[in-house]
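hi! just following up on the protien thing from before. the input was this:
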Amino acid sequence: MAVSIDDEKRVALFKSIGLNEQKSWETLKNNDITRLLESTINEAKTILSNENQISKSIGNLLYSLSTKSKQQIYHLHKYLIKYICEEKIKNEQQLIAAIDYLLTNPTEPIDQKALEESAGIGVNVTIDDIKRVVKEVIEENKSKLIDQGYNFSMNTLINEARYRLKWADGRLLKNEMDDQLVDLLGPNDRSSNIQPNTKIHSFAELVGEALNFHKPGENYKTEGYVMTPKTLDLMREHLKKTGGQIITRFPPEPNGILHIGHAKAINFNFGYAKINNGICYLRYDDTNPEKEEEKFFTGIIDIVKWLGYEPYKVTHASDHFDQLYEWAKELIHRDLAYVCHQKGEELKGHNVPESPWRYRPIQESLQLFEDMKHGKFAEGEATLRMKCVMEDGKLDPVAYRIKYAHHAKTGDKWCIYPTYDYTHCLNDSIENITHSLCTKEFQSRRSSYYWLCNALDLYCPVQWEYGRLNLQYTVVSKRKIVKLIENNVVRDWDDPRLYTLTALRRRGFPPEAINLFCARIGVTMSQTILHPDMLDACVREVLNLNAPRVMVVLEPLKVTITNFPYEKMTELTVLNYPGEESRGSHTIKFDSVIYIEKSDFSENPTKDFKRLTPNQPCGLKHIALVITIQDIIREPNFCKNATSFNLYVL
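and the predicted 3d structure came back as:
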C-alpha cells in the first residue's frame, strides 16, 4: 500500500514528540486521534520558545491529552496544552484530574483558579516527599507485612500513599514502594504467594469491580454523550429528584418467556444497582399489543423474583401513553416529525429513500396524526416518523404506527402505538434512569436515543451497550420457540429441552447456579457464545455446596455378598455434605443383599471401563470393602436381561 507524503509528514511530527516509528504509524490508523494530535502538537509549538524540540515528558502528556480526552471539551484543550508546555501539569494524574474538571465544567469562561486547585496544577512533589510518605505508610503496616509478607494487599499501601501524595508521579511512587518493601521483606518469591481462590463472587460484586461507569449527574463525561445548552440545568433537576442514586431498569417485552440470555440482563441491571445501593425498575415494554399475553407478564416477574431480585417498582411503557402522545405532537410542532405514507416494505433496510412527505406542512402532519389516532387510516397506511439519522445511517425512524389490536392494559383506547425507538428513551427519562444498559444490537439506536431526549428538552440518560449471551446447540429466539410450540415439537415454554428460564427451573437448575453462570462470564462488549457445559458446571458447583447427599439406583442389579462380613444387617453413618461434619449426617443400611446401578457393571468392558467386571474388582462407597464377582446368575422370569450376582468380599 502506497504511503502518502502527508502521512510521512505526520509520522515525522509524531516522532518529534517522542513516539517511536511503530506507535506513530499505528496512530495514523485512527483518523480522529491523528487530527487531534496533529493540532495539539502544532498549538504546543506556538507556545514553546524552542518550537522544534518538545521534550519526551511533554510529548507523552500531549499524546495522553489527545487520546484520553473527550469530544465535549476539545474546545478547551488550549488551557491544558498551555499548562503542559509550561510544565505546570507534570504527570498523568494531574492531566486526568484536569480533564475531569473540564468535563464537569465544560462551558467558558473557565475558572482557572478552581481548575488549578482541582488538578494540582503547579504542585511540585519531590522524590524526597515520595520517600518520606512511602516510609510512613510501610511503618504503619509493618507488623502485618512481616506476618503476611507479599501476600499482604499491596494495593492498600499504594492507595494510601497516593491519597497522601495525590499529585505524585505514579511510576516513581510504585518504584519507591517496591524498593522499600524489598529492604523490609527481601526479594519477592512469587511462588510462595499463591493463594487458592475459593470464593464464588456474585454478579453484583463482579459488576462493581469491572465497570467504571459515570457517576449520577455526570452523564456528559461519557464518550459520545450529546450536550445542549439545557443539559446542565436538566442534570441538576434530575439530581434533585434522585438524590444522586443509581437507577437502572430491566425492560422486557411481554411477548414470551425469558431465556438464559435474559438472565444476564437481569443480573446486570439489578446487580449493578444493588452493588451501588441503587434501585432497578421492572418495566414491561408493552408497545406490541397483538403479541402480548397475561401469562407473559406474570411469568416475567415470577422469574425475576426466582433469581433473587425484587424490583423497586413494576411499570409499563403504556403507563405513559398519554404523555408520549403529547410529546409526539410537540415534535411535529417543532418540525421534527411528520406523517408519512410509505409502505412498510419501502422502509426496510438501511438505504431507505427520503420520504416524499418529509417536508409537508406542520399543521397538515398534526391533523393527519389526529386522524391516525381516531382510526381514519387502515394499518400500514400512515406512520409518524422522526427527522433524525440513526447510528447505522438509517433515515427517519418510525415513532408511531397503526395497530387495531386490543391492549392488555389500556384495552381499546389506542389504535396507534409508539415504537421502541420512540418509547424507550422517553420512558428512561421519565423514570430518571441513570444507566440505560442494553445489548450491543441497540448501539445503532444510541444516536436517536440522545437526539429524541434533546429534541424535547428532556433529561437524557446514558445508554451503555454490552455483548449479549448466546449458548451453542440451543434455541432461544422467541419467534423460533413459538414455531416449535405451534408445530408440537415442544410442549410449551417450560419444556425441559429448551433453555428458557422456566424450562431450566423445571429441570431442577437452582437460581444460584444461573446467577453464578452470569457472574462467571462477566460483562464485555463482545458477543459471548458458550457451550452449555459451562452452565452445567455452575449447576454442579452450586449443588455440590448446597445439595445434601442421597443415593438412588435407577436401574438396579441385585448383588448377593456370599461372605458377608457381619453377623446381621448393619447401619453406616454418611455425611450429608462430604467433609463437613457440622452440617449433619444420615444412616444407610448395609446387608448381604445390595443393589448397584446397571451402568456400574459390564460383562464385556472397554479398556477405559473402571467399574465392576468379571475380572475387575470394585470398592463399595462409604465402607472399606472391595467386592469381586464369583457367579453371574440370570433371572429371565423376573425381567428381560435381568442379572444378579454372587459376589465375594476381598
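The domain at 556-649 is CATH 2.40.240.10 (Ribosomal Protein L25; Chain P).
The longest helix spans residues 31-47.
cheers
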